[in-house]
Each structure stands twice: as C-alpha cells, then as structure tokens.
Amino acid sequence: VSNLAGALALVTCKEPLRVSMGNHLRSLLSQVTSEQNLIEPVVNLCSTENLELGCILIEKAATEKAMRDIDEALEPMITARVKSREQNREPYFDTSIFNTQNRYPNALPDPLRPKPNPNGLEPHQLLVYEAFQRIPRQPVIPANRSNLPPGQQGVGLQNQAAAPAAAGQMPVSPSGSGALSQHAAFEKWRIIVSNLDRIVMEVAANKGRKPDQDISVLLLEIRSVGAAIDSSQRDEAVIGFAQRIFKRLYELSTNDKFRLEVQYAILEAFVELSKDLR
Length: 278
Fold this sequence. Notes:
278 residues, mainly alpha, 2 domains
C-alpha cells in the first residue's frame, strides 16, 4: 500500500506542484518588482531546485496517510478477530463478506474465492497476497552479458554480483550503451529509498520486530545502481540524489533514532560512490 500510494502521488503531483510553485513565486515577486525579465529566471530556478524536495514531502505525506487510513479501516476487523479468539478460541469467520450485494469476493474466480477454513487460506490463495509484498529486483545487466552462452548468463550475473560484495568492493560498470542514465538511476534509487522507508515504518509498527526484507541488501543495491552509471555522469548523479537524502534529515525528529540511522546508512552508501562526497 505504501509503495503504491507513494508512486501514484509522485506521478500525479510533479507538474501541478511545479505550476503552483511558479504561480506563488510570481505573485510574491511581483510585489517587489514589475520587470518580468527578472522574475521569470528566478521563478524557474527556484521551482526547479525545490521541485524534487516538494515531491519527496508529498510522497511521504501520501504514504503515511495511506498507511493510517488502512490501519483505521482494518482496526474494527482486527478487534473483532481478537475478541473472537479470546472468547471462543476458535477460528474467526467474517460471513458478512459473502453478502450478495458485495462485488468481492463473489466476483473472484472459484479457486481464489475465500471459503470458511479452520486452517486459513490455501497456499495458492495466500500466494496472491504474498506477491504484493515481493518487489521484483532489477539486476544491473552488464554490456557484455549478451556475449555469454544462454545457459550461463544467469550464472555470470550472480557471480559478478557476489564477487564484489565478498571482497568489499564495488563493481565497475563499463561506459557505453550498457551503463545506466542519470534519470534511470534516480528512479531506481527512489524505489530503493521508498522500500527502506516502508521497512522503517514496519519496524516501528511491529515494535522492533525484525523486518521481512534485509536493509543491508537494499543498501547494496544503492551501490550497485551507482556503479552502473556512466562514469562521466556518476558523480553528478550521486551528489544530486545524496542532496535529497541530506535534506530529508532536517525533516526527521531526533527521537526517531532508527529512521535516522537508516538515513545515515543511505548517505554512507552514496559517499562510497563518489570521491567528491568524502
């Protein structure tokens, strides 16, 4: 839910936010000067520099609201299940979902339609819900991978990813058509950071329980994406995205220690990618 809400908010807010920021800036600056040739460059510069920060704030607000709304919607059902377990100590069945006026689950195909079962959902039914929690990883594909035999391409990719991690070094991506563009790297980093935010919220909600996804794996993905950027654009891309993370630190409460530690770990991953940040 958090990933979907954040992604939808990010896609829909960018252009309206840019226009709104420009209009507000023009309104404020027009009170100081009437020379449009001075106002427009300032408006464009300020809008561009602050657009990404605004998008991050909107994405964060949308994600938190979605999680809060879902929790509120599920609270009565969770409470009913807890009371049923305490009183009856038998599996709880919510028969109201089978109301003929409801579209779901009646519209579901029979294999996926829930039925009263003391053991809960069947494995093939549970797989549908578990699939939403698995975010497909997009491994960095080297430019010369196509030269490998078809049966060895996957093996070569695994060996290439495992060797640098074991040696504590970052893989070096070749310059050329196989390298990531700055825009593609930003999008991959945005998804990784969004996943890290989700893990932080899950840990907070579960009172410190170990998260389902390993944070160190996501931090390694940050380095892998950075190493795959064309060497001529890598420093610029790394510094640009690291600035976003640095700005986020100002938004966090000093009491939220775990979230701060994760943000520091993200910054450290970017520091390792660029000498200009050291």
